[in-house]
Structure formats: structure tokens, C-alpha cells
Amino acid sequence: MSHTIDWTPQRVTVRYQGPCSDSVVLNAVKEIQCNYRFDSTHEALHDFSDCESWTDSLADLEELSARNSGAAASMSRLRIAVIPDRLDVLAMLKRFNSIGMSPYPLCAFVDIESANDWLRKV
User: Fold this and answer.
1) What global pTM score does this model have?
2) Which of 15, 20, 102, 121 stands the most exposed, by the fewest C-beta atoms within 10 Å?
């Protein structure tokens, strides 16, 4: 598996490792949004520090954006922090934001400490 999901009260953390892609992120988000703990989640951290390569798919990004829009209808308070750690992952985040459908605040950070600081702010 190229990702792991860890749950704590009000937070979900996804760590990606090895070869990664938009479809891996989409599958992780599907797992998260189908989990009963998602309804009480306020913070999401996506950490790509151990991602070794990246493969793009605009169709997967569009589906991810649409899924977030749908999920926001019942759970609108989520904030998403991302540690891209690679230029191609950062470029994916820019493409994702340019789609313009995701209702959640999303911000990229260089390290876990700055991501945690931002997520903890209300």
C-alpha cells in the first residue's frame, strides 16, 4: 500500500510512501470520507515526505475536488494541510486549487511543525 491513514480525535493523517499518484490520493480520500470518524474530523494532514515519484491524472483530481464539494455539504469545518516535499506534488496542488471546486481551506507547508501550527489555529 502506498499510503497509511492514522486517526486521532478530530484529525486524520495520511502518509504517502513509494510511487504516488492522484489516484492514490483519491483512494485515500475515499477511505477517509467513508469512515465514521470523518464526521468529527476538523484537521487533515497529507504528508508526501516519503513519496518517491509522482504520476498525474486530471480526471482523478477533478473527482477528488467533486468529492470534497459533496462531503462539505455535511462536514464543512475541515482544514487540509499538505507537506508536498516534491515539486511535482506541489504542481499537483496548484492544479487541484485551479479546479476551484474544493470548499476546504488547503495550504502547503515545508515541515510538520508549520503544518501543525496552521491546523491548530481556529
Assistant:
1) 0.93
2) 121
